[in-house]
Amino acid sequence: MPLTVNHQDSFVAASISFNLAPSVSLSRATGAIEGQVRQLRVPGSIHGSFHGTAKAFQQSLQNEPYLIAAAVIAVYIALGILYIHPITVLSTLPSAGSGVLLVLIATGTEFNIVALIGVILLIGIVKKNAIIVIDFALDVPSGASV
């Protein structure tokens, strides 16, 4: 008989911990654990969840779409304030985003926090380039050749 019985909330709980191999990412490890749990076909009365770093990692993944959407909305608002064609500028972002996804898939790189920072930087660079092109196009007098 165990000396203590661990509880989480009001349920009996058991903790299973793991360490990462040197070349394995946390997303790959949590995916492998979730896959093994699905293969075990545990009854519905048994629930599992991650804690610690793995839980923080999963919560950060849930917030990534909101961060990207907030960046796009902030860009739209800033462009609207500056009276530059916001829809024209923002129309360049989907092709840039699909290019990022294609490069990540082609190189086998996971979408991690570094890739997210890169996407946010790419949004800024593509936006700046589109603003410069639109500004140049609006300043060229009609009938003039470039």
Short summary of the structure?
This protein has one domain (8-139). The chain contains five helices and two strands; from the N terminus they run E-E-H-H-H-H-H.
Task: Give a description of the structure.
With 146 residues, this protein is mainly alpha-helical. The chain has one domain (8-139). The chain is built from five helices and two strands. It has helices at residues 26-40, 53-81, 86-90, 93-107, 113-139; strands spanning 7-8, 11-12. A two-stranded antiparallel sheet has the order 1-2. A hairpin with a 2-residue loop joins strand 1 and strand 2. Helix 2 packs parallel to helix 5 (113-139) and helix 4 packs antiparallel against helix 5. It is elongated, with a radius of gyration of 24 Å. The model has no long low-confidence stretch (mean pLDDT 81).
Number of distinct helices: 5
pLDDT < 50 stretches: none
Q: What's the number of structural domains?
A: 1
Tell me, rounded to a whole number, the average pLDDT.
Answer: 81
How much is the radius of gyration in Å? 24 Å
Structural class: mainly alpha
The biggest sheet amounts to: 2 strands, antiparallel
Tell me the fraction of residues in β-strands, as a range.
Answer: under 5%
Q: What's the SSE pattern?
A: EEHHHHH
User: What is the topology, as strand order, of the major beta sheet?
Assistant: 1-2
Count of DSSP E strands? 2
Distance between the ends: 86 Å
Form type: elongated
Helix-residue proportion:
55-70%
Can you lay out the helices and strands and say which pair or pack?
Blueprint: E1 7-8, E2 11-12, H1 26-40, H2 53-81, H3 86-90, H4 93-107, H5 113-139
Antiparallel strand pairs: 1-2
